[in-house]
Amino acid sequence: MSNLAVGIVGAGGITNYHIPAYQEAGAKVVAISDLVIKMAEGQAEAYSIPNTFASMEDMLKGCPEIQAVSVCVPNKFHAKVAIACLNAGKHVFCEKPPALNAQEAVDMAKAAADNGKTLMFDFNNRARPEAQALIKYIENGDVGTINSAQALWIRRTGIPGFGGWFTQKPLSGGGPVIDLLHMIDLALYFMQFPKPEWVLASTFEDFSGNPDFKGPWGIPDAEDPIVDVEMAAHAFVRFETGQVLYTRNSWAELNKREEVSVTFQGTKAGGMVRRLFVRDGIDETAIDDCELYVQENGKSVNRQIITEPDEKMGREAAVINFVQTIEGTAKPLSHPEEAVILMQVIDAIYKSAESGKPIEIS
Ligand SMILES: NC(=O)c1ccc[n+]([C@@H]2O[C@H](COP(=O)([O-])OP(=O)(O)OC[C@H]3O[C@@H](n4cnc5c(N)ncnc54)[C@H](O)[C@@H]3O)[C@@H](O)[C@H]2O)c1
What we know:
The chain is of the alpha/beta class. Helix content is 32%, strand content 26%. The chain is built from 11 helices and 15 strands. It has helices at residues 15-25, 37-47, 56-62, 78-87, 102-115, 129-139, 169-172, 176-179, 182-191, 315-327, 336-355; strands at 5-9, 28-33, 51-53, 68-71, 91-94, 119-121, 146-154, 196-204, 232-239, 244-250, 259-266, 270-277, 286-296, 299-305, 359-360. Helix 2 links the parallel strand 2 and strand 3. The termini are far apart. The mean pLDDT is 94. Bound molecules: nicotinamide-adenine-dinucleotide. Nicotinamide-adenine-dinucleotide is lined by residues 9-14, 33-36, 39, 56, 72-75, 77, 95-96, 122, 124, 315.
């Protein structure tokens, strides 16, 4: 069991996965901080955390025993908080997206390397049992090279409230591309992070202020909301290797229903992982499936891989993997250089959409 002492920065919704996961891994959550101290106090009471602070700086000063920090603040603050914690000699588990852009992800990776500390990101969909089942086939060579993949996270009515930090580009970095980057990340993970070369993309702002397209979660509406992010995005990525990836992300798009999936076509096998929604748009009711497609003895064979359901959607498993990585008992599920590649793709999607031109990633 772990003796790791952990501090949490930001006490919002996602900490309901981080805190129990640390506790399950045997780590001790010794402090939680939030600019809104009531938020920190609420979570401290709910999970018996002994110390609360109104800032990350006060937390690091007040609890020097902290060895690792979870960064659970809005996207704009990921890089700043993570780098400060790494420079203070702490390991860091940072929520997704890694940062607002690739340069910030590079700076975070450098801070981790300079301080010799572990920096991991909450790419929780990699930690899901289905993704872990598929990656074993891929790593064993059973899939061959993934020539092409399609990554979808599309919502018909999924705007996370009007005027919270999610819908303000300076705070979030963007809309569904950056918020729902999980399937793009998962496709890159399956493709084993080839170097992206060209990106061509378009984004759409239709339905931006329309309450009919709001999701059943998110932040309550502001009185005079700022909504300056895309509502849907379609992109095509070509890698130096010739491999290609199509991505589609939306919060508001006239699609039949929510779809979350990665499909891929390998030189030896194709495959797919997807989330099936019992009720549209509700994460908690999702079940997943994954399959491999091969030709055997002159027949098309579809292999359904049976995995145990994970109602926590890999969010707790990813935190437990972070603890075990620090302890040296597990291999890390994410690496800082992968976060840089992911953010390069996302930067290029936005640049291409803005310029109307293909973007070369140097
Ligand atoms: N992996 C996932 O599936 C998943 C799901 C939801 C959210 N997230 C990510 O988690 C992060 C937080 O999301 P959330 O839904 O918990 O948001 P939230 O708005 O519920 O909570 C954020 C909290 O951070 C606090 N805060 C803001 N700036 C701060 C600072 N500089 N220092 C300390 N506290 C600060 C706010 O007061 C707020 O209480 C985001 O980056 C989001 O993208 C990931």
